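Tokens in:
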């Protein structure tokens, strides 16, 4: 028996393409040269994942400066010169963000061109990640709509149009990133999951939602220190999520304080088990990866387990990310052998 492996989303960009080890690293190339460079960077990561044995691969978000704003750059109705200071993730930290000033419109596909390139260069299952509606609205200021929920609904419709086009190209999995679910648990249950389903409406490919405690940046690391010995926020919205049509849920399990028994609340889902800590430069051993997967298997059926990273690795040194991915695959193989 085997279990599949994948990554949560972003991977480091090469030093010649963007500022290294930064979440918002500026591009070093422009125009046509930029797209050519992004293609080369994506191809390097595609081949690395293939050679390492990752089953469901991605472009590592090499075509995006940021996992949210990289999608929003081609959406009309956003003023990128009107920067607004707002609290991110329920005021975990402040950031200068662009502002929605008019009706939101998607005139053309954002990621079709880059996705076509990637699909032509791999025969493996390919996953594309998109920001979820609630997380978008926690990363951009609202200067037009009557409420955050109304703006999120408009983004959900835009995401759905994008996702349907990507599915037609042959994408295996479309993942929506919703780290904001952990900061707004009540709203996640009341309307966040509902709008996630709007974004995924009509899709026949695999659908996933990625929920975590954030990139390995100082603001997130400091915030996690305030959460106590048990991170039980998931209990607030897991029942709603379990009743949704989303196929997979991606969660942070490595070096987290999430009580794994809450995974029983997602018994209708495949679980992308985060076994790689993105907030540490320490390279996990295959045995450490195995241990987490083995513990999770007490609460999740073996057939529903997919080994994954905790979150994206964009701010991480390139070579560290490579070594962590190798450990991810090696540990998953150890776990699979234990069931044979």
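Residues out:
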């Amino acid at each position: 028996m085997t279990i599949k492996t994948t990554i949560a989303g972003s991977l480091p960009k090469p030093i010649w393409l963007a500022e290294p080890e930064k979440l918002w690293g500026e591009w070093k190339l422009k125009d046509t040269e930029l797209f050519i460079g992004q293609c080369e960077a994506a191809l390097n990561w595609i081949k690395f994942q293939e050679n390492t044995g990752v089953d469901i691969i991605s472009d590592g978000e090499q075509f995006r400066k940021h996992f949210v704003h990289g999608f929003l750059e081609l959406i009309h109705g956003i003023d990128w010169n009107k920067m607004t200071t707002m609290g991110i993730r329920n005021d975990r930290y402040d950031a200068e963000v662009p502002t929605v000033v008019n009706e939101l419109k998607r005139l053309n596909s954002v990621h079709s061109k880059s996705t076509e390139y990637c699909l032509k260069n791999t025969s493996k299952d390919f996953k594309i990640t998109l920001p979820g509606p609630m997380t978008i609205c926690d990363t951009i200021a609202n200067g037009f709509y009557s409420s955050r929920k109304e703006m999120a609904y408009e983004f959900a419709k835009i995401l759905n149009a994008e996702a349907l086009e990507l599915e037609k190209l042959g994408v295996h999995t479309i993942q929506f990133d919703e780290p904001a679910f952990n900061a707004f648990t009540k709203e996640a249950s009341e309307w966040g999951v509902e709008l996630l389903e709007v974004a995924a409406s009509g899709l026949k490919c695999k659908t996933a939602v990625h929920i975590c405690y954030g990139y390995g940046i100082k603001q997130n690391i400091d915030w996690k220190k305030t959460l106590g010995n048990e991170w039980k926020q998931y209990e607030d919205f897991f029942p709603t999520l379990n009743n949704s049509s989303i196929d997979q849920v991606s969660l942070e399990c490595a070096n987290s304080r999430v009580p794994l028994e809450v995974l029983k609340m997602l018994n209708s889902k495949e679980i992308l088990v985060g076994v790689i800590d993105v907030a540490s430069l320490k390279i996990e051993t295959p045995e450490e990866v195995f241990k987490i997967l083995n513990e999770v298997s007490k609460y999740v059926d073996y057939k529903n387990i997919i080994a994954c990273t905790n979150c994206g690795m964009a701010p991480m040194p390139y070579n560290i990310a490579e070594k962590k991915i190798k450990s991810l695959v090696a540990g998953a193989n150890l776990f699979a052998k234990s069931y044979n």
